[in-house]
Amino acid sequence: MLGGNNRTMMHTRHGIRGIAASCAVVTVLGITAVPAAAENTDNEGQADFRPDQWGLASIGATEMWEETEGGGIEVAVVGPSVHEDHPDLRDNLTVDTGHGDNSGNMDLGTGMAGLIAGHGHGMDADGGVLGAAPSAALLALPTGDDVDGAIRAAAADGAQVVVLAETDADLSSATEAAVDAGAVVVGPADGGGDPNVLTVAPTDEDGQLAGNTADASEIDLTAPGDELYTAGPDMSETQVSGAPYAAALTAGGIALLRSAYPQLQPEQVRDAVLEGSQQGPGGVPALSLTDAQAQAAGVAQDIPVIDEDLADEADQGSQIPVWVWFAAVGAVLLFGILALVMWVRRSTRDPYGVEAERREENEEIAAARAAEEQPARRQKGGRRRKPRKG
Q1: What sections of the protein cross the membrane (predicted)?
Q2: pLDDT tens-digit map of 20-74
Q3: d(CA 12, CA 23)
Q4: What is residue 259's three-state secondary structure?
Q5: Whether residues 319 and 290 fall in one domain
Q6: Cβ within 8 Å of residue 253, ≥6 positions away
């Protein structure tokens, strides 16, 4: 079903083609540069990372694409800057700089955004990477110190999923407001302990916890978060590892669920994800969209997409009293009768034209009589004779 992107433009990937296979692997903040020669390439020589995006298949995102690709859902990325011109993100992404400049290190935010809604270089191109929900809309809110305000702004904008790059600060008031507004809030398991946030720890391709993670008691869910291909700096793709990326992939998966079952509330979606999880490392649940979808479908079947109670209230509120209907019908009938009478009177008056003919004759006679009674005009130049005297 998925052709790579729902965009018609094709963008050429820069910065990866000339990297030699033997170059050194440089890791900064969990981001690793990827040698192009080690990857598959399309007909134009662009690197195609999709066959190696093991995280998407692991959580079952590719199976859900047969039903939805996340269309109609907005996912907000709060905190890091994001490369808004990246070809794998372009057109899906909106950047709100009301809470901070989009000029910081873009590696983290761009990588997270790519895992959520990367759409490749174009519908007909094989290059680039895909996110879990490639048709979802992205809202990036880079922040300085106003993370709280950015979360609230994302909720006010209508984001159905909000993903945080960090959860170690006390943001419970803002995250609670976001949940109340209808958003599922996701973040890395880094010891924050916010009950409103679905905390995610990263696992590797073998399903084991990867890197330094929080205590099991602080982890709600695990998801792929090790050596994931995603959108990177310099218009390229890269490999990333860490809890924020696991949280981003989870956010993309939740966007698919919210797109498929829009009638579910945030807590119902969260319950479906947790109850539909697989057994993960150390007994911690592991994200499984296939099972979460089954859970969500079971709950959604009893919940109409349209609230029938609200619809009934709207119908009742718009009802018109019976007497108004009778008055309106009576007025229409009366108007119709009057119009019919006038038409009949006009159509039956002097059908043979007798009155009109008499009127015309009378006018002619009157004109003739007026001409006879008019005195003859005295000719010009005549002299009036004086009467003779006696």
Answers
A1: 322-344
A2: 333 333 333 344 333 332 344 443 444 555 667 899 999 999 999 999 999 999 9
A3: 22
A4: helix
A5: no
A6: 59, 60, 61, 64, 132, 133, 223, 273, 287, 289, 292
What Rg do the C-alpha atoms of the chain give, in angstroms?
Answer: 40
The token pair at 141 is 């809110």
Question: Which has the closest alpha carbon to 77: 106, 47, 119?
Answer: 106
Domain residues for 335? 309-347
- Burial label for 146, CB within 10 Å (0-12, 13-18, 19+), is middle
Amino acid at position 74, single letter: E
Inside any domain, residue 364: no
Spatial CA neighbour of 4 closest among 111, 90, 125: 125
Number of domains in the chain: 2
As a whole number of angstroms, the distance between CA 343 and CA 252 comes to 71
Q: Which residues contact 371 (CB under 8 A, 6 or more apart)?
A: none
Q: 298 with 328, same domain?
A: no
- First and final C-alpha spacing in the chain: 134
**Cα–Cα distance measured from residue 330 to residue 313, given in angstroms and rounded to the nearest whole number:** 29
235 & 338 share domain: no
Among the candidates 247, 272, 305, a domain finishes at 305
Write down which residue in 332, 347, 362 finishes a domain.
347
For residues 26-58, b (16+ Cβ closer than 10 Å) or e, as one string? eeeebbebbebeebeeeeeebbbbbebbebbeb
Residue with tokens 């619809």: 311
